[in-house]
Design goal:
Elements lengths: L1 H23 L2 H6 L14 E6 L5 E12 L2 E12 L2 E11 L3 E5 L3 H5 L3 H4 L2 E5 L2 E6 L8 E10 L4 E21 L2 E18 L9 E12 L3 E8 H7 L12 E10 L3
Antiparallel strand pairs: 1-2, 1-13, 2-3, 3-4, 4-5, 5-7, 6-8, 8-9, 9-10, 10-11, 11-12, 12-13
């Protein structure tokens, strides 16, 4: 009888061990270990270089320091773009948690988009950050990345900007790095940007425009590719949301990176 008890105990232990092995390889279990920080890594001194797909420019991105904005700690990144003899620099701030990557939004460019005659009638309710990346990656459930609402005089709130992020799945991206060509799996995120300008003569019929852009995030590297509307990508690539010109599109691919732990 003791022999049978020992055999039963050994078989039960083996089954439990196998079950644990299966659970550890379950994609749902692996999803729980996903941390947003690994998809936008690096500390001060980290550097990234990008090239325009059209071959007419490069962009260098550097994490230059830290900043405290309204009591929140951010890492500051500076972007310098070179096109021909011209260069354009921009600075923005971001922070990371295990669950998301946030970019602080300077709303100066947004305010300039509204004429003084209209601005005086508006009360703004504006998100301070863009949720650029989230670990809640579900292809059926987009997340609200950024929103701007206004209240016109004594009337109800009206949505002006609605930026929605959509996870499109994992995609292999070939990186033509200066050190050689490699292929990395990346999280593909599409951002749908809806801009609605109130028509004061008919508030139920605003002037609406939509644009989109896509970013590819690779684990332990960050953004490896950007494609789409420049107004959206400016906030992710080292600039701010600027609606002065919403017609420009860009495609940029990473060419080199040096990530400081």
């Amino acid at each position: 009888m003791r022999l049978w008890k020992v055999m039963i105990l050994l078989i039960s232990s083996a089954l439990i061990f196998q079950a644990c092995k299966k659970d550890n390889s379950n994609p749902a279990s692996n999803q729980l270990t996903l941390t947003a920080q690994r998809y936008y890594p690096g500390n001060v001194g980290s550097r990234f270089s990008y090239a325009n797909a059209q071959g007419n420019g490069i962009r260098n991105l550097t994490f230059t320091g830290t900043a405290n904005i309204n009591g929140t700690e951010y890492i500051t990144q500076k972007s310098i773009s070179f096109v021909g003899l011209d260069s354009i620099s921009a600075t923005t701030n971001f922070r990371r948690t295990d669950n998301a990557v946030y970019f602080y939004v300077d709303t100066t460019g947004l305010m300039k988009f509204f004429p003084d005659s209209l601005r005086s009638l508006l009360t703004f309710n504006i998100d301070k950050e863009i949720i650029a990346f989230s670990t809640n990656l579900d292809q059926t459930k987009p997340w609200s990345a950024y929103r701007m609402d206004v209240k016109i005089a004594q009337l109800a709130n009206v949505n002006i900007i609605d930026l929605t992020a959509n996870y499109l799945g994992d995609e292999n991206v070939t990186l033509n790095l200066t050190s050689g060509q490699v292929t990395k799996s990346a999280k593909k995120i599409r951002y749908d940007f809806k801009l609605s300008i109130p028509n004061l003569n008919n508030l139920s019929s605003p002037n609406t425009r939509t644009f989109n852009a896509t970013a590819w995030f690779a684990e332990d590297i960050g953004i490896v590719k950007l494609e789409g509307n420049q107004s959206i990508l400016g906030a992710l690539g080292g600039g701010n949301i600027n609606l002065a010109d919403t017609t420009k599109t860009i495609t940029q691919n990473i060419t080199a990176y040096d990530i400081k732990p």
